[in-house]
Amino acid sequence: MREQVNGAGSQAERAYLALRDRIVALELTPGSPVREDVLTAELDVGRTPFREAVKRLERESMIAIYPRRGSFVTEVNITDHGLIADVRLQLEGHGARRAAERSTAAERAELAELRALVDRSGNARAPVMDLDARVHRTLYRCTHNPYLRAMLDEHYNLALRIWCLFFERLSDVSEHVAEHSALLDAVVQGDAGKADRLAVAHVRHFEAAIRAAL
């Protein structure tokens, strides 16, 4: 799930990505305090960029800030999963459609490389989730719409945290990841309608798998 910042990157962006990934992977557990003194030292960032990152994550519902109490990782409310899936059903299909329509030749080559990785993926938690995140975030970038990309990223991160929470209880992880093969093929081939349908089916399958695990 780790995402690199292009070039040196800003401290705020670096802090945001690091905190986001720790929250999604449950390394910062739901309900736990976001300890500024500890985390700024670990991430080697200043307090101002760290607080910018925290505010950004608050807007994305991953951190809650309470006056005079501090900042805390939000709880995972499983009843929200259906609401998140409802939004993703609208966003993911549209995003895949735009990626198929707008991706450049270089981006399609990148997607083809990811498709090859999907075909070789196994069931181990960390590499599977890293690959899933790479596929989704690359597709979002290929939409060439920063507003759509931001919305896709935000709701994917919330869903990914739920996946982390239930990973060991899911029986079809390899099948879920394998669904990316056909989706990536459709985007690379520029088949927008097929990409849209496959992305929606992928979200429906994930939502059903989580419900079955409850």
Low-confidence stretches: none
CATH topology of the largest domain: Four Helix Bundle (Hemerythrin (Met), subunit A)
Strand line-up in the sheet with most strands: 1-2
Strands, total number: 2
**CATH class wording of the largest domain:** Mainly Alpha
What is the beta-strand fraction? under 5%
Specify the number of helices: 9
SSE order in H/E notation?
Answer: HHHEEHHHHHH
Global structural class: mainly alpha
The name of the CATH superfamily of the largest domain reads GntR ligand-binding domain-like
Mean of pLDDT: 91
Query: What overall geometry do the principal axes of the alpha carbons give?
Result: globular
CATH architecture grouping of the largest domain: Up-down Bundle
* Terminal Cα span: 24 Å
Number of domains as seen in the coordinates: 2
Largest sheet: 2 strands, antiparallel
The helix content is 55-70%
Using only CA atoms, what is the Rg?
17 Å
